[in-house]
Fold these 4 entries.
Entry 1:
Amino acid sequence: MRLLNASGCLDALIAPEVAMQLDGFVTKTITPLPREGNAPPRIAETAYGMLNAIGLANPGRERFLSDALPRLALLGVPIWVSVGGFCAADYAETCAALDRDAVAVVELNLSCPNVDEAADSAAEIVAACRRSTSLPLYAKLSAAHPDLGEVARAVAAAGADGLSLVNTLRGMALHPRTLEPVLARGQGGLSGPSLKPVALAAVHTCYAATKLPIVGMGGVVTGQDVVELVACGARDVALGTVLFSDPNAPSRVRAEIASVDLDEVFGTSHKASEVLA
């Protein structure tokens, strides 16, 4: 079981000591052209987690390739590049440009709730990327889809090597006195502990549907959270919002699961479901 970070929750060039605690570093989502993202305020704390409406702010593909990626490669940690876009060609062109020794895995961000542009279907994007690169492709899906298992099967058939589950879910916070939205965009993506039950259900559903390798994420704070995601079918686990408050979370979580046989735990929730059925 590998411990990763959730895309956008860690800047390895600013905090390399945190990234080097991980078994792989996942970059912020890269788009073909630079993006400033949404107007501030674009982060808000709530009683249930954190809202963000960053909007895929990033330096763009060319600057990432020429500047950030060579420096990330020096960390000695496998690099997973999160790729975004607004049509299948955007994703495929970036994947083709990444086909190099510095990149271990491509994570296709098919589920960002903080941009308005509509992308092509998840399966169409995966198929285009599969034609453009031999790198492993993980499709990051949204738990908000009414039939997540069907989407998982579709991206598997299109050539995905694995799944990342889940991205944030759309949420909103209001100022208590003015009752106006806290975020300039109005709504944003909810992350943090409240997301864990959603993540467990999504991983359970998609593993049953596809048996693909899954990176489970959403509300992971403790070693027990890791164990539960593995029990639902996650082969790997990513830490997200917890990294903002606890930079040593990767080492702490690893210590908390040191005595657990994760191979024995893997998929046990499905065995329980079979018994109940």
Entry 2:
Amino acid sequence: MVKSFGKQVSMIAKMSDVPDRLSRHSSLVLPHGVADKGGDCGRRIHAAIIMDGSGRWAGARGLSRSAGHLEGVKAVRRTVQAAPGLGIGTLTLHAFSSDNWQRPACEVRELMSIFEEFLRSSVADWVGAGIRTNVIGRRDRLEPSLVTAVEAAEAATCEGRQLHLRLAIDYSARDAIFCAAQWLGNSEQTTPAEFARLLAAGDFGRGPVPDLDLLIRTGGEQRLSDFMLWECAYAELIFTDRLWPDFDAAGLEAAVREFRCRYRRFGRVPETVPAGA
């Protein structure tokens, strides 16, 4: 995915005028108007979750990390089930980052097995619930059986309209941005919208998705960890100390409620925003 060093240097040189070119498109249409008063209560949102804390949850109970990951699957099912009723139209879950390959090999194997079983066992329920699923991230480093499960789930659920569920596996936002920049080359006509489309294509996202509105991270950490860096430009961030296996529909509802109470200005100060908001 990452080209040779020499090609990288050449590409960086070709991209030296990117800021000037992108500045021509600075008058972007804001994602949801000038300011989202009260979080755009009537609109379905794109929410994402960094699912952190499964290993610590298990360790606190004297269990294996795998037991924590299996318990985390239950939290995924609860979250997916609750999302449509809370006004979430797109849900992106950070399951495995490209940096997670540095974990012990046995844990990585167990995680990949969990992902495969989860996909295969969920398809029927997703079809029945009108849930469309995609997996974003690299696929060339995944086991063939997992890739087969991914493709089968995507094909079977492609008609779902109640929720677009995106699972990030072997995902790196920096890699996605770098590859999109490589494909962009020295084009003078590319807009930010086209760049976003290239990002989605590189992540096997099967097309662009709405801008990210809400990012939730469980587990007490307060960082993005190379997750959806481009898409997080104007996302509302919510961090919770709750470990991922303890996350439930009530936790998701509370986060969405907090989001809908926030005033989103997108860099402007419109007259409709109350003083002090």
Entry 3:
Amino acid sequence: MTNAIFESVSATRPDRLQLASPATAADTGVSPDVTGFYDEATGSVQYVVADPVTRKSAIIDPVLDFDPRSGSTRTTSADRLLKHIEAHGLTLEWILDTHPHADHFSATGYLKDMTGASTGIGERVVEMQRLWKAFYNLPDSVPVDGSQWDRLFADGERFTVGEMEVRVLLSPGHTLSSVTYVMGNAAFVHDTLFMPDSGTARADFPGGDARQLWRTIQRILQLPSDTRHACWESTVAAQRAHNLHVKNCDESKFVKLRTERDRRLPMPALMLSALQVNLAGGRLPPPESDGRRYLKIPLNAFPYASWGGSEPGLKK
């Protein structure tokens, strides 16, 4: 049996994807059914992962559509996942976030309301909530205890989708709360590694750390090398041999490369809007006295951030 590596989100184009790999295949013997859904507007990949035996499933990193020009939201992308689940006779058990994303809104809250499925994220999201609550100057009534999700996963924690075991690996660096979900003989590594020609994720957001990112990557690259080929998938072996930022590199060289590169990157266009929603479990801000919901943008909170003068095509 072979092992698979999948990207969870934030590809800069459909063929630039992330790594996911496998350590539980020998334990479970399960090869999950994986379907990726590319969101062109944000360059994100959403996944439906199913236990082939029980047909129980999980959604990973769902997208809530947002038009920044009009301030409007839609559920088209999330509804596409639900239609796929219905059409294939699946039962949704879990809605999983790998981390609070900066480039798109999460549809976790919407999907929870529609299906009642359990939601989960890494337990260090609480640290991110506390950090960003200060940036947004949010009132004391806003909870920073992770209660917006049903389950906060610790490093090494295990749970099941159907009869398929899932192992959680803490994967900090891109954000301090990032996790990897290892499901059967596949794993989902969020924004840590892209396809080898694109390198690695940035580590300059508040709470990010290039040294931690390097150590996370090394942990992932210690997983088995063999993989099965699929869309939005790379292999451990290919990453070891060809990743633009990892091959022929050590920790100090990587930290220097990543830090210098990140200085030239513009802030993601939706970051200040998206994190308000994503750190609340994919819930929009509550309605105010007029019945409307409002996003809050902290002005000049990041004066060091680029205004967009990065190299052409440089996104991560």
Entry 4:
Amino acid sequence: MAKPQEHETPPPARSDFPDWIEPMAATLTQQRFTGPDWTFERKFDGIRLIAFKQGDDVRLYSRTRKQKALPGIAAAVASLPVADIILDGEVEWDGHTAYHLFDVIWIDGRDVTRLPLTERRRLLAELPLQAPLHLVRELDDAKPWERACAEGWEGVIAKYRDSPYEHKRSKHWLKMKCELEHDFVVGGFTDAQGKRVGFGALLVGYFDGDDFVFAGKVGTGFDTKLLTELRTRFDAIGLEKTPFTKAKGLPRVRAHWVRPEVVVRAAFIEWTVHTKLRHSRLLGVRADVRPRDVVREQPRGE
């Protein structure tokens, strides 16, 4: 992964202890990479929690600035041997088992948001944390996203080592969520836009009895060779009307239809509430699967 675009010049450091800070947010990515400029950590599935300690006073807020009453966590933060501090982390859904800390924003009268992440992590690691406070550790796996999925985590966060703490959604923090994989049958495609060749996105679905159900679009994961080869194949099996018999959400313009003969495998983050693919990407074309055998697999927990 190349170095991200240079961050904007951070605002001047605060001199007064703030009542609130806008939390830094990660940007979802489908890229998978490692590199010396990046560090990785587990993405915990809980509630974002910002802790403010000023003297004996401790305030806990969600990312939307809703104050939280969590006595065990508040007591542990209050016991830290600093005059004032602002901590960022994720608390378990039950609100008391663990508060996983991954950043420090202010400490002992200093706004440290302009320091690089590596320095802020050093400051955080020096704190004598007591349960339920826990330091989020760096991962040293060659492919940390694979470990995340194997161990049932929500995913991992890639963080640019030299980045400051930005009060916005940033590309210096990238969220790699665990993906699902599924076979789909191509029922159409959209027009290519800009400099892209072949087509824009695949319109894919699965069979449910006699119905061919539209599941959404797959628009990434192609190279130019595959785009060209698939377009040639689609031109030979074109249809005038859509083959989908259940087609909620189907594009109304710039769509072309094909006989449901081509099977592809796609990765995606999740099924939406409308049973469509979220953040999908192509993994490959399958020649070993019959189109009529492609049915929706029930996600775990359903």
